[in-house]
Amino acid sequence: MVKARLRGSRWGRTLLLGATFLALSVLVGGPGTPAAAQKAGPPGKKKAAEKKAAEPAGKGKVAAPKTVVPQLINDIMVNTAGGVDQVAFINQQIEKGWADNKLRPADRASDYEFIRRASLDLIGRIAKVSEIQQFLKDPERERRSLLIERLLDSEEFPTHFANVWTNMLLTRSAGKVYHDQMHLWLYEQFEKKDASWAKIVHGLLTATGKTNENGAVNYVLAHLGEDIKGDSRENGKFEMVPVTSRTTKLFLGLRIQCTQCHDHPFNDEWRQSHFWGVNAFFRQVDAPNGRPGLVVNKKKGVMGAQHTLVDNPDFNGEGIVPYERRNGLVQFSKAVFLDGTKLSDKSATRREELAKLVVKSDYFGKVFVNRLWAHFMGRAFTKDPDDFGEHSPVSHPELLDKLAKDWATKYNHDPRAAIRWICNSKPYGLASVANETNDKSDAEPFFSRMLLKAMSPEQLFESLMVATESKAAQSKDKRREMREKWMSKLVVNFGDDEGSEATFNGTVVQALLMMNGQEINQAIMDKDNGTVALILKHRGVTAKSAMNDLYLAALNRPPTEAEYARILSPRMVNLPRLNQPRNQAFFLGFYQDLFWALLNSNEFILNH
Hints:
By secondary structure, the chain is mainly α. Among the domains are: about 10-40 and about 455-605, no CATH class; about 195-360, no CATH class. The chain has helices spanning about 10-15, 15-30, 35, 50, 85-100, 110-125, 130-135, 145-155, 155-170, 175-190, 195-205, 215-220, 230-235, 240-250, 270-280, 350-360, 360-375, 395-410, 415-425, 455-470, 475-495, 510-515, 520-525, 530-535, 545-555, 560-565, 585-600, 600-605; strands spanning about 70-75, 75-80, 210, 285, 295, 300-305, 310, 320-325, 330-335, 455, 605. The strands form five sheets. It has a three-stranded antiparallel beta sheet. A two-stranded antiparallel ribbon has the order 1-2. Strands 5-6 form a two-stranded antiparallel sheet. Strand 8 and strand 9 form a beta hairpin. Helix 5 (about 85-100) runs antiparallel to helix 18. It starts with 9 loop residues before the first helix and ends with a strand.
């Protein structure tokens, strides 16, 4: 353990950065941790003592929904709410891929790994200690499925998926006001127990009204493209190129943006006429009071202006869009969908017609299931979750086809249904530690182990707030303020303005950003509140029980016997007795340093 007061000064932390990461490798970097997962071989036999965790008294048990009936799959009771066939089919198809490619799957993830992983994936944060206690009290064969139901029923589920989709729909470069409006609208959609992705997408594509009354309008308003010069009655008011590209990519998994200028170079199926045929569906869009953007009010400062989205039937009345071929020849396209379907319902707006065609497409279900699979498994059935075509083959075409068809025809495009299937499946429950048969990248498409996933900035913030029990974050307004400051730093350092998250790679800049964060250090150092202080106030606390509770709070698992031995070794630190008042400050400081080290470890930052 680095004995220096790492929290005290920024220059001290900077000078000790190398030594600290060396210490971290000693403390939490042993075999079986995510840091070693990519290279480690088969894990050895764990001692019984390593599997057993100290369990402080917790709250009462939360019952699973009465409508859920557990059934036996692979010796595990699965609460799939009607999806037993789909879970069994996933297992059968994935196991066939293992056998065909001579892959030995990783061991089953421990319950501690599973609750942390499922919590991050479903509600966007690590588990609380009380939730771990509840989870371990459930019957062993049912606890994972019971957990999935609790997470799906949590109000944090729609919050998290609204975060995910707001970033995909608007990118991170959109203004905060419009992000908040879109997030609220998406939250209200995902919150519904009968939520339908088809209805959500239909709402996004056909939305009209004011930004502060219908957040869905921000999707089209954010991607209007260039203004068209001349009379709007002929070609429309905006080019609508960005929304055309984004719509086919996000909702159909077809990247046809390059066909704006020429036929697709690698896929003969998509031609320039296809792009402009879809584009014509958007050409009657109007934003009467301008595009979304920040305006300055002398009294209120910078704020979001209120904007409106409507369809103007006088725009592009003939429904013909001109486009230029590479040879300079100008051609024209009417509103024609990718499969050749033309406008048929003259009483509906063009966007309403487009929305119907999108949700009826076979690609619609496939891309959503493919994207969900990537969200939970770390990789899609294709190289990229929103890119279908000959250049991007599907690793399990039969499986993807069945899941997409069942989800659309039997489950009414319910996002929770598809999530249940994936989270209850055998591959989702595997550990991330590789073995000699699956430690190469060419084994990744067969899902014989869980791939490591970098936390998003939102997941990282929420997880730190849960782990530290920050007093400052207890107030709703203060938490929002802290989150905004945090996100402004992490978007620059961890992501890009296109909404893509960069993989954390442990660079000095990123490490210092986390280590020197004022909010984190204040939460760790709080002598009266927060995780460390509250743990040390427990009656009968011992060095070992304190260490156990800190590991559960930060890493969602107890320490291994090896970690106990290393950290509590006399060679690392001479621990004072609790009944010696003059040593209380040192005792508190030791565990603050330990907690700080755990929060800055790869095991905390990565979803594994």
